[in-house]
Amino acid sequence: MQLHWIDISIIIAYIATTLIIGFWVSKRATKDLKSYFLGGNTLPWYYLGVSDASGMFDVTGTMWLVYVTFVYGLKGVFIPWLWPVFNQVFLMVFLSTWLRRSNAMTGAEWLKTRFGTGKGATLSHIIIVVFAMVSVIGFLAYDFKGIGKFAKTFLPWDLSANTYAVILMGITTIYVIKGGMFSVVLTELAQFAVMVIASIAVGIIAINQVSPEMLNSVLPAGWKNIFFGWKLDLDWSGILDSVNAKIAADGYSLFAIFWGMMVFKGVMVSVAGPAPNYDMQRILSTRSPKEAAKMNGFVSIVLFFPRYMLVAGLTVLALAYFMPQLRGMGENIDFELILPYALGNFVPIGLLGILMAGLLSAFMSTFAATVNAAPAYLVNDIYKRFINPNADSKTYIRMSYICSFAVVVVGISFGFFVESINSVTQWIVNALWGGYTAANVLKWYWWRFNGYGYFWGMVTGIAASLITPLVAPISPTIYQFPIILVVSLAGCFIGTFATKPDDLEVLKKFYKTVRPWGFWKPVHVLVITEDRNFKILRIKAAADFVCPV
To answer: Is there a domain that residue 328 lies in?
Structure first.
């Protein structure tokens, strides 16, 4: 498909605007590391909430959601639970408040407040940086695959999908490196506004183009029913037979068991707290613990309506008009082309340019947020702590530039080897986060858990997330989660009980500062013995996070 010159002009103008914003705020962003990575803790919570939502509104994920909705119908609303969708609820209620009270710059630096500065704490510090880098590279490979396939379909030049991905990621890297968190947040505010306009427009187009009768004529029985029994009971025979093979390959036929596993995994991952990525950086960037809770409550409100209006609109258009093309693909059906097809055939000139700019901005938002999170760990938690602790701010900022560029290069390199969007999605949300969960649950709720336990829990968890898919390729991959979780728990307990407890002074300070609940009675007794007013402070803190807004 060839874009009209008007649409191309809109896209180019949008990309140029984002670059200008990045350079415009660069002076303010490069004042020091706190300004570069956290915006100096001066950004309002609602700015950060929209920015966080914009970072989750990515084109790769949207393509995957369109596929899920097309194949599974209204039951597809449950499948995104593969991601920790409960996460924002737990963060809003208490976890973001706990995290922000540390006044740390990164998740690795936060661990110093929990485990201190001994050998075990140092090991825990290093392993969370390793995990952060593995996570970031995984997300960059995910972004690479999606944006390349999307751009190849729409943009007019005869380039490969991988070449398009390299170019677009390179452009985004320029403004992220130059402007830091200020640049990311300000551009994401504009990007989210464009995406909302685009999403509403697609929803209106779908309503006008597709009648209920047209839709009913191509839907299998049960597609419009959100409820399910023991099995999925969704049969595409006679309509699009190859979809049945896709459902079987996904492994979701026994939907009750699959749904139960998603709930179990979702709760476990959520109580572990945010992974060391852009979500955690937004929390640490807020002005206060109370604003951190408000921000996470706001994310879900502003994110879900526009995104699902876009997803539902694209799915309805594809169901009504894309069936002949899908049937022509035979067994090699590529559902990830549904989104480009729907846009190319039903969105008018001008609006298509805005919509393309919106979807490109969705990619740029996620990519920018991911890239901004990565150098914070490498520079603040490795270079500054272990290599050059007395350098000036300009040196640290230059190192941030270098690290950002290096991470992007590595992420792109891995992107060349990714087979599909779905494959990398499944590995990130099921295997990798399975390795993160056990150690990061215990760090909040159990006083005896120490730095050595955290280190070995993370080491065994990351190793299990890499090895389990190879030695136990269970389908769907979410069923690998319990195996990885148990292996990681074993590492946590062995590492903890084979070593001494952490310094009680560190534990008391953490307990008084963060005020967690859970298995903290021995530390609680010591704290209230020294400070009789502490119990009153705990009650007040509880009131703060029960009603965060």
So the answer is: yes
